[in-house]
Sequence to fold (93 residues):
Amino acid sequence: MTFSKRLRRLQPWCSKCGSVNDLTVDHIIPVVHRPDLEFDVSNCDVLCRSCNGRKDALTRGDTPPDARPHPSAKAQKLLHLQMIVNKDAGDAS
Fold:
């Protein structure tokens, strides 16, 4: 199973809007800038294609800063994903 499919299976909803349709895995720091973080869970977020597009526009400066998610929501999601990934890694051993 690919990294992207695994993350979308572990979190089958968009972190921003809660949608369960057309999910993607977004790299918080683009892989082009940090290729070493491509498979780092802390650098990934599950977003629907629509929210991912808005996030990309935000990083280009096309959207007002108040559209950014609250940092605590991001931290909570990260802890959840890390616990699940670590548990799955233990099950695979």
About this structure: Residues 3-92 form one domain.
